[in-house]
Write a structure and sequence with these properties.
Keywords: Membrane, Mitochondrion, Mitochondrion outer membrane, Signal-anchor, Transmembrane, Transmembrane helix. The protein has 163 residues and is mainly alpha-helical. The chain has two domains: 77 residues, Leucine-rich Repeat Variant (Alpha Horseshoe); 83 residues, no CATH class. Helix content is 67%, strand content 0%. The chain is built from eleven helices and no strands. The longest helix is centred in the first third of the chain and has 15 residues. The protein starts with a helix and ends with a helix.
């Protein structure tokens, strides 16, 4: 894991980045690796790559963060990327894998109400995706909206959103 994280930091080659992120994402699917990756500063190493302009790499970053987000301690570190993820969802092509990866991450991050306030500005986008997206996008958006609607503090924001 340490070598993979070092590889991510030391290369600009998108193909190598993609492969390293896929491997890290697969490793992050196992809870035993969550703490190890976090303790190696892996979340910030992976998260910094969200600024990468290549959609395929961003998608792999989001997949890795999604797998890491199944841990409360990891969520505390991942939450700093929520606003960026929301922007990436809004700017991504409709129904793209990048958009779906971002929505999956937000689904996990919205299971508890701790980070709902960070998604308020994206509610109009979510509602737009619900009406314009394909079935896969709609299902993923509904998961986020259901999680947000479980929080009474979000009710006003959801009902007043301009679509």
């Amino acid at each position: 894991l340490q070598k993979l994280l070092h590889l991510l930091q030391s290369t600009d080659d998108p193909l190598i980045q993609e492969q390293a992120l896929i491997t890290l994402s697969n490793r992050a699917a196992f809870s035993v690796n969550h703490d190890i990756i976090r303790n190696l500063d892996g979340i910030s190493i992976i998260g910094r790559m969200l600024s990468d302009c290549i959609p395929r790499v961003k998608e792999k970053v989001l997949n890795a963060l999604n797998n890491l987000s199944m841990n409360i301690k990891n969520q505390k570190e991942i939450q700093v990327y929520i606003v960026q993820v929301c922007k990436d969802i809004e700017s991504a092509s409709l129904n793209s894998d990048l958009q779906l990866a971002g929505l999956r991450l937000l689904t996990n991050m919205s299971v508890t109400s701790d980070y709902h306030h960070m998604m308020i500005n994206s509610i109009p986008c979510f509602l737009h995706l619900l009406s314009e997206g394909n079935e896969r996008t709609q299902i993923q958006v509904l998961k986020v909206l259901v999680n947000l609607s479980d929080n009474p503090a979000m009710t006003r924001h959801i009902l007043q959103a301009q679509v």
